[in-house]
Amino acid sequence: MKVLHVESGRHLYGGGKQVLYLMEGLARRGVDNLLACPDGAHIAEPARAFGTVIELPMKGDVDIGLAGRLKRVIRQHRPDLVHIHSRRGADVWGGVAARLAGVPALISRRVDNPESRWAVTLKYGLYAHVITISEGIRQVLLAEGLAPERVSCVRSALDPAPYLREYDKAAFRATLDLPADTPVAGMVAQLIPRKGHRHLLAALPRVLERHPRLQVLVFGRGPLEAELRQAIADANLGDHVRLMGFVDDLPAQLGCLDLLVHPADMEGLGVSLLQASAAQVPIIACRAGGMPEAVRDGINGLLIDVGDVAALGTAMIRLLDDADLRRHMGAAGRALVLDEFSVDVMCEGNLAIYDKVLARAFHRTGP
Hints:
Blueprint: E1 2-6, H1 14-28, E2 32-38, H2 44-47, E3 52-56, H3 65-77, E4 81-84, H4 90-101, E5 105-109, H5 117-124, E6 129-132, H6 135-143, E7 151-153, H7 169-175, E8 184-188, H8 197-210, E9 215-219, H9 225-234, E10 241-245, H10 250-254, E11 259-262, H11 271-278, E12 283-286, H12 291-294, E13 301-304, H13 309-321, H14 323-340, H15 343-365
Parallel strand pairs: 1-2, 1-4, 2-3, 4-5, 5-6, 6-7, 8-9, 8-11, 9-10, 11-12, 12-13
Helix pairs in contact: 1-15, 3-4, 8-13, 11-14
Domain Glycosyltransferase subfamily 4-like N-terminal: 14-160
Keywords: Transferase
Domain Glycosyl transferase family: 169-334
């Protein structure tokens, strides 16, 4: 089986890492992988270990020419199917290219933001099947009119190995010039509005009344960086909140947090939630999208309603007050990731859908 993967993201964020996990797992199972990605994309170099990489211009939703470029790639390399992994134009033009080339295609949907029924009908009509990374996203698509037999859930996965280590929390705090017993919370997310950084900043004054030495580390990059810096300054939180940017050694730092806060307005699943659980860090997240599938309320973390700043503050105080609860939830989170979010489970789930799509195509066209 030969599969052309299309990933239009330039940075190696959560979605791109899922593509790498999948390519690696498929290669171990004898699948011939191809990857089409933007020129200079961060995924290109590591992906070469698992298949052939084709870099080409990908300019977003208005890049009509992407359909022609991908069609030429399909015609040249003759994959058995095309798997679209991201948006930024690929979700439309990739489907068009596969349709024009006469190759069955499927698409992974990683976000839970709503789409109109006409958009769902037109866009997903290009695809033989839709794969969602959480049941929450699948339910969104069903509510928007997609037929149940055309959409399946295969959850995102995590390679837990980098997080299965002993963490020296005191040494980590020393690198930040903090006393060894300083409470530290973190947030790992792109600096974009829907991730909910504003809710965390709004909750902090109350939390700091109870835990005045608390430090909050915000990991990630994005267009909101300048706005967040200003908001931190305006709220006089500069002594308590640090923007850490994008760090290459996140696995070495994540387990040194006392808790992870993820008050996103919407989230397909949340790879950072799986990472935190693997590192035995309890989580506060929202009852939205796929987050309740990664964070089980009262088991490996606490769930709050979207935008409920008071509940966010209460949850943070509860976890910061109770070290035993944090340890218990951390251990439960690691067990959850190992049991339900393995790379092997994710690869087998995608491969089963590939087999079903190809069998249907063979049945329709004949040998």
